[in-house]
Amino acid sequence: MVDEPDWLKYQREVHSQLVELYPESHIRHDVRLPGNLSNAQRQVDVLVEERLAGQRLVTAVDAKHHGRPIDVKEVESFLGLLRDVGVDRGLMVSAKGYTAAAMTRAWSDDVDLDLDVLSLAELKQWQGEAAIPYAGRNGIVLSAPLGWIIDGQRRPGTLARLYRRGLSFEGAVGNCEFMYVNIWDRRAPVDSLEALLDEQARQLREVSPDVTISVRELGGDIGWRGCIRRADVPSYPTAELTGLVEFPDAILIVVLFTPLVGERRNVRKLEYVLRKALPMSVRHAAQQAAAPDGQSATEGRG
């Protein structure tokens, strides 16, 4: 039996890691796709096909087994392949990581594509990009979308923030590309999704009477009621898009700020956060002292 070359073993390892990360997705190794621009068959190391909001979402993965980090030329070559085959997202995984310039180039493209660059070690830790922000008795399990991280450091007015990996929160604000998270306790009079939308609209119009507001329900089966509200305020540099999910005891609020050029892909990231969110009930130390033996202070719901 002929031993496989190292580059092929590496591709299989990346494929195996992605199978673990996306157990409900269809993941294939060494796929040929037709090029829409080249009119030629293009090879993709790993192809991930999943469903989001009832739509097919396709990610092409390039596994680089080089003795050096990924550089700018390789990122630009992969961007060309992504445009040619017409997938939604791209992911480059490198045994030796990537240069700072390669990462900057990957995130600076203005086409409606996601492209992230990871080392194999980062890919293996990808499942850890989650957090559980909480307020009072309510907590939410959040998962970060492709290329973003969750910053759980408490700041005034927000429980957590999401932004591109490799940036500080201040840098993300400077780019007008970030999300922040809050939890609304469902209590009268604002105890439903409709009531909260009405209250938010009232507050927006008090500040900006000329605001334009539209609401889109989340499609597909997510098990909970949810929507995305868009507010166009003339004085804002970008649109404010707010995702809301109504859980039994609380409403998750995720506000997205995004440049217009990246709005479609960032709305997909917002939908990913909303659809992956799960509610939890939180019991604090005083409650724990009175809890029966063996009962956890944090109990999952849903």
Question: Can you lay out the helices and strands and say which pair or pack?
Answer:
Layout: H1 6-21, E1 26-34, E2 41-52, E3 55-64, H2 72-85, E4 89-94, H3 100-108, E5 114-119, H4 120-124, E6 130-131, E7 134-135, E8 138-143, E9 148-151, E10 160-164, H5 169-174, E11 178-185, H6 193-207, E12 212-217, E13 225-232, E14 240-246, E15 250-257, H7 263-276, E16 278-282, H8 285-289, E17 298-300
Helix pairs in contact: 2-3
Concise synopsis of the structure shown:
The chain has 302 residues and is an alpha+beta fold.
Q: Ends: how far apart?
A: 49 Å
Supply the CATH class of the largest domain: Alpha Beta
Output the number of helix runs. 8
Q: What value does the Rg take, in angstroms?
A: 21 Å
The class by helix and strand makeup works out as: alpha+beta
**Count of domains:** 2
Relevant CATH superfamily of the largest domain: Mog1/PsbP, alpha/beta/alpha sandwich
Question: What would the average pLDDT be, to the nearest integer?
Answer: 84
Which consecutive residue ranges, at least 5 long each, have pLDDT under 50?
Answer: 286-302
Overall shape: elongated
CATH topology assignment of the largest domain:
Protein Transport Mog1p, Chain A
Strand order in space, largest sheet: 9-10-11-15-14-13-12
Strand content: 35-45%
What is the H-and-E element order? HEEEHEHEHEEEEEHEHEEEEHEHE
Total DSSP E strands: 17
The main sheet comes to: 7 strands, antiparallel
| CATH architectural type of the largest domain | 3-Layer(aba) Sandwich
